[in-house]
Amino acid sequence: MQRHHVFPVSTILLVAANLLIPVAIVVFAIGFFPYKPFLPGLAEYQPLEYGSPPTAPFDRLIFMVVDALRSDFVFLNGSGFEFTQRLISDGVAIPFTAHATSPTITMPRIKAITTGSTPSFLDAILSFDEADTSSTLAAQDTWLAQMKAKKTGKLVMHGDDTWLKLFPGVFDRADGTSSFFVSDFTEVDNNVTRHIPDELRNDDWNTMILHYLGLDHIGHKTGPRGPNMIPKQQEMDGVVRTIYEAMETQPHLCSTLLVLCGDHGMNDAGNHGASSPGETSPALVFVSPKLKSISKPFKVPADFVEDFQYYRIVEQSDLAPTLAALLGFPVPRNNLGSFMLDFLPFWPEKHDKLQILVRNARQILDIVAATYSSSTSLGKQYNPNCRHPSSPAEELTCEWQQIDGTIGKIPVIEDLDDAWIADVSKWLSKAQALMSSMASNYDMSMLMYGELAAALASVAAICAVASLAVMTTAGLVPFILTTVLYGIMMFASSYVEEEQHFWYWTTSAWLFYLTVRSTPRATRKCFVMGLVALGAMRITRGWNQTGQKFAGEPDIVTHFMASNPPLLWCLVFATYATVSVELFNTLGNIPTAISGSVVAGLVMSALSFKLAFTNEDAPELIVGFAKTLVNMFDGPSLVNRARAVFLGLGLTSMYPLYNIVVPGTKVSRDETMRTLHHLYTLFALTQSRATNVPLFLLFRAIDMFLSRIDLEPAQIATSSLLLQFSSFFAMGGSNAISGVDLSNAYNGVSGFNILAVGVLTFLSNWAAPVWWTSASNLMLLQSRQRIKTKSDYRNAYRQHAALMTAFVTTSLGFVMVACTTLRTHLFIWTVFSPKYLYSMAWSLGQHLVINMALGGLLYWLGCV
């Protein structure tokens, strides 16, 4: 009689719960991150009853973007922009601070600058995909499209290739540079500057875009006060000097406007993506000899202010209508910006000023009417119900009718006074605030369906836990308490921003509990190891300052290791030495000469890469003996060094994999799995910054303690969960987009490849959590010693997997409900939306791929 294998109910429930996770995430994301609608086509000058469009003072534009150019980099004393400050002092440059709304990422900022609109938060995600073409502005109205439509010259671009993705086929000449090689400070900028002399001599263009990346890369690596920052500012200032002197001396550039700006700023840690004052305050400077006639005196350098708000504050979207007037084209159709009144003196005639402001206002009124199309009373016709407007949009329309009505009552346009101009400006600002702060067009049904899928996944996971063997209260209660407290925490923006403290304190409390709990039964050595683990956790907490409120504050890395490079490298060498000894011990069945040579070759190649990479990434850390080793290992490129490490790890891993697959080998499965664990440790060290390498020594100390005590599957799951999250934040991770570290994303990759770069980016940011997944599997395998049957220890793994799934599904549901409930919250796009993106990464990447797929495979290989 044929026997049919029947899967346990717990397995079916567990599979169902994990399959529902990506469904819930995708459905909710579709409703939460929709593309905002826009008006198609190019704007055209509409006839007005009081004259033709005014004459533009400029006919060419040089738009120079210095990535992450924070306002104080240009305007404060000690800045490297000395020549630019002299231009401001001489009255030929007008300074501003341009407010950049979150997300402070290059792609959405360029969209805001060129369209004058508020980009979708989804653009922050797409900006990490260099191959993406779905978010282009090819069909939208921008000032680049308007300049091209003028047909007075070619469009030229040199620098960040984000412009080429956004504007395919727009530029007649272009040389793009990838923005993700963040270790490079010089080549990305030299590639831009080398084109400038020839372009300035050419007279066949009317728009030139220059986008420099080096200053942003320096910020990511060494922060805003790094040793390379002032020299880079001086280099950028030299570019401004070159362009300005050409504008003064070459006749075809006499009516050229130079705009120097940052797409965003940076925080005190050198990162960006969130909404701290430093990240949202880039500099903006208009430069031209023609500005001498209209500018007012400015104090240069400016007095220090803490919030980076220097000179007049404008919105980045204000650039679009301002450039439209200065260069003579219609305001882009989707613009929400307001013309900068500082430039009105260019047109002394009142009817010209009227033209500029009224056209700007009526263009925004069209946007209001299109957005609130269900309100039949909106539009340019007179609304008789203005005494009792039913919506902010109706109120805005009524206010414009009052302002517009005053024009017809004045027989001569020249009789309009400055108060009318002020009223129009206030109306523009109010319209801009209304439309920019308008809630996204959420698809509520999709949000509900996503939450329902997450709820079903949670129920399935919890039922899977309940259907398995009974767990003790000591093992289950801490896990439940952690899950519930974490879920509640998701409804408070401050807790989301500073989530790391929850995991630090919870992990410390858990280790303390395990230490005290094991004391009556364990040896004195085990108790001492518990104290060592607690000490290691305390050091781990202070290693990298993360979060939002205290980013850039003193931590072990910046204020101790960075100032003591010899100590750092002693710890780095100790970490590599520890891994090499452990790896050598697990290869004991191979002849010593062979195993020693393999381990030595692997570790030396990995250490050689780390030294060479750090020499390029943070040369100030390479001193003394480290400098001697760098010179000794000088030769191959970083790409080839990384490839050698990866190839060596791959070839060496074939030995333990062979021992697992081929039956009858003499090597124990525990030893084989430890070999794979140590090989991954070498890979994790390769994908981590040099300053974070010693953390793996601390992780090993905690792991040794946990491996010594008798833990149930539920306790192993709790330990794994807590240490995965706490180690992620200890390595410098956060819930802000600015926390994504791209420094190791191109190890061994010579050009952009979405799969390779995506995998390396994830494994470099989640290197420590993945390490703890592997360590947890070793703990589970070790627990077989007290489990009698194969079905029992398979059941133990199912308990572990079910608990991890229960946490992921439940926490994901809490995050979804928080995002839905707080969708009108002030911090929805700066705190809660990035948190949802991180929840996606934790759920899809760390949980499904690492914990479930890879972890399950490793456990199965160790048990078969």
Describe the structure in brief.
This protein is mainly α and 864 residues long. It is 57% helix and 6% strand. β3 (154-160), α7 (162-166) and β4 (173-177) form a beta-alpha-beta unit.
- Give the biggest beta sheet: 8 strands, mixed
Mean pLDDT reading: 84
Order of strands in the sheet with the most strands? 4-3-5-1-6-7-2-8
Task: State the CATH superfamily name of the domain at 59-126 and 139-328.
Answer: Alkaline Phosphatase, subunit A
* Structural classification: mainly alpha
Q: At the first level of CATH, what is the class of the domain at 59-126 and 139-328?
A: Alpha Beta
How many individual helices?
A: 32
Q: Which blocks of ≥5 consecutive residues have pLDDT under 50? A: 1-5, 129-134, 374-382
Strand content: 5-15%
General shape: globular
Quaternary structure annotation? single chain
According to DSSP, the number of beta strands is: 8
Question: How much is the radius of gyration in Å?
Answer: 30 Å
In CATH, the topology of the domain at 59-126 and 139-328 is named Alkaline Phosphatase, subunit A
Determine the fraction of residues in helical runs and give it as a percent range: 55-70%
Protein name: Alkaline phosphatase-like protein
